[in-house]
């Protein structure tokens, strides 16, 4: 097999920005069910760019089983690209993405050595694997509406998938797109995992910034120092929720209106290092944060979230003590369930801009109930 840039995923370097872009031409071969409006209510309709729904954010929790029988992520349904039906799973279900942006077996470009030295036209093969994790058999549930036991299964599955992929790949990116507005293609509660044999931009930058900080500050860990200063020097003004093991803050440098960072208070390098108590605590604090998010605009709050921890695979034995595990939540809503922040114009061409301060966002989230979901009680604050 020889490398073919029209068929094989690869990364191209942007020397103007010192960034890479992942190109996945094999995804063009995915089946296409026609235009958004032409979709019929069938399994294929779930493969369209979007889905027809009255309220863009809100799942109808009372809908009956009938509406689930065509969803390719549901128990017992046969996905269009699969021979076997999904199992009748009771908690979580993991499968290889049928339309992966990365492939495990890809040859190197024949001119790999030449291109590595080329300042303008650098590229390398991008190897990896993409998985989908269904959180629950019920399409109508979201994480904040699940029980703590359900969420514990999700955390356990994240750890299992992470462990498995971390043994082979340098970076394991767990991420959840929630809501149409974030490009989520399917209402069923799920997340994705993309594992790569290279560090993507965000990982590469965070690896360097945390290492530089550690070298400058006597081996201290950037995010642990940050936690201490948030807790001790700033009267917790950006803290949204604090539990025994975990903390949620609107970071000082937050870009999205209600962006938050969720991190363990103890020094934890990777997802796989969480103790059983921390795993249970994680479920509790996630549920609390996500109920607050839903209560903010009384809607199923859309976001993209994901986990960042120390690199793995071929870097597992490198000194990564400067790393601290953390999750970032990037929600786009600004003033209501329908008014979102656009990252366009100045943000695209110059730099990110925000109106509401991180401190005000934190206070707003802090003051909301994290226990009672607005759907369970009228007039929730
Ligand atoms: P979102 O998290 O953006 O909704 O993506 C869902 C993923 O599920 C998407 O990457 C995959 C899509 O390729 N998928 C399958 O692998 N098989 C299917 O039958 C439907 C969706």
From TrEMBL:
* Residue intervals of the Galactose-1-phosphate uridyl transferase N-terminal domain: 2-200
Q: What EC designation does it have?
A: 2.7.7.12
- InterPro entries from the UniProt entry: GalP_UDPtransf1, GalP_UDPtransf1_His-AS, GalP_Utransf_C, GalP_Utransf_N, HIT-like_sf
Pathway where this protein functions: Carbohydrate metabolism; galactose metabolism
Required cofactors, per record?
Answer: Zn(2+)
Q: PROSITE patterns, alphabetically?
A: GAL_P_UDP_TRANSF_I
Q: Which GO terms describe its molecular function?
A: UDP-glucose:hexose-1-phosphate uridylyltransferase activity; zinc ion binding
According to the lineage, what is the superkingdom? Eukaryota
Kindly state which reaction or reactions the protein catalyses. alpha-D-galactose 1-phosphate + UDP-alpha-D-glucose = alpha-D-glucose 1-phosphate + UDP-alpha-D-galactose
Q: Where is the active site?
A: 190
Is Nucleotidyltransferase tagged as a keyword?
yes
Where in the numbering of this chain does the Galactose-1-phosphate uridyl transferase C-terminal domain appear?
208-377
Specify where the region named Disordered lies, as residue ranges: 57-81
Please provide the Gene Ontology terms (biological process) for this protein: galactose catabolic process via UDP-galactose, Leloir pathway
Q: Is Transcription regulation one of the keywords?
A: no
> How is this protein annotated for GO cellular component?
cytoplasm
Q: Keywords for this entry?
A: Carbohydrate metabolism, Galactose metabolism, Metal-binding, Nucleotidyltransferase, Transferase, Zinc
Q: Which family does it belong to?
A: Belongs to the galactose-1-phosphate uridylyltransferase type 1 family.
Record-given protein name: Galactose-1-phosphate uridylyltransferase
Origin organism is Adineta ricciae
């Amino acid at each position: 097999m020889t490398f073919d840039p029209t068929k094989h995923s690869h990364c191209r370097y942007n020397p103007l920005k010192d960034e890479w872009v992942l190109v996945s031409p094999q995804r063009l071969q995915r089946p296409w069910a026609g235009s958004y409006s032409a979709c019929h209510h069938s399994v294929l309709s779930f493969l369209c760019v979007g889905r027809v729904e009255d309220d863009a954010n809100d799942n109808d929790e009372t809908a009956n089983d009938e509406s689930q029988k065509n969803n390719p992520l549901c128990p017992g349904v046969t996905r269009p690209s699969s021979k076997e039906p999904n199992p009748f799973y009771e908690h979580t279900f993991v499968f290889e993405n049928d339309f992966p942006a990365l492939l495990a077996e890809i040859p190197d470009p024949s001119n790999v050595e030449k291109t590595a030295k080329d300042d303008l036209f650098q590229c390398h093969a991008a190897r990896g694997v993409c998985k989908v994790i269904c959180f629950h058999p019920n399409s109508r549930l979201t994480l904040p509406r699940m029980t703590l036991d359900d969420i514990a299964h999700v955390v356990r599955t994240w750890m299992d998938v992470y462990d498995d992929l971390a043994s082979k790949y340098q970076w394991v990116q767990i991420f959840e797109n929630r809501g149409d507005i974030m490009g989520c293609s399917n209402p069923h509660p799920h997340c994705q995992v993309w594992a790569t044999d290279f560090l993507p931009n965000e990982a590469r930058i965070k690896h360097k910034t945390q290492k530089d900080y550690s070298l400058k500050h006597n081996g201290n860990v950037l995010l642990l120092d940050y936690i201490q200063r948030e807790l001790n020097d700033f009267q917790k003004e950006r803290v949204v929720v604090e539990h025994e093991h975990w903390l949620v803050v609107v970071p000082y440098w937050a870009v999205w209106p209600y962006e938050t960072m969720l991190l363990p208070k103890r020094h934890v390098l990777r997802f796989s290092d969480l103790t059983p108590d921390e795993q249970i605590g994680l479920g509790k604090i996630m549920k609390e944060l996500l109920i607050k998010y839903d209560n903010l605009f009384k809607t199923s709050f859309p976001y993209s979230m994901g986990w960042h921890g120390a690199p793995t695979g071929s870097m597992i034995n490198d000194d990564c003590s400067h790393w601290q595990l953390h999750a970032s939540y990037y929600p786009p809503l600004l003033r209501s369930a329908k008014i979102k922040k656009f990252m366009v114009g100045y943000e695209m061409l110059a730099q990110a801009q925000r109106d509401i301060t991180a401190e005000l966002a934190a206070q707003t989230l802090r003051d909301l109930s994290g226990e009672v979901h607005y759907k369970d009680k009228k007039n929730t604050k």
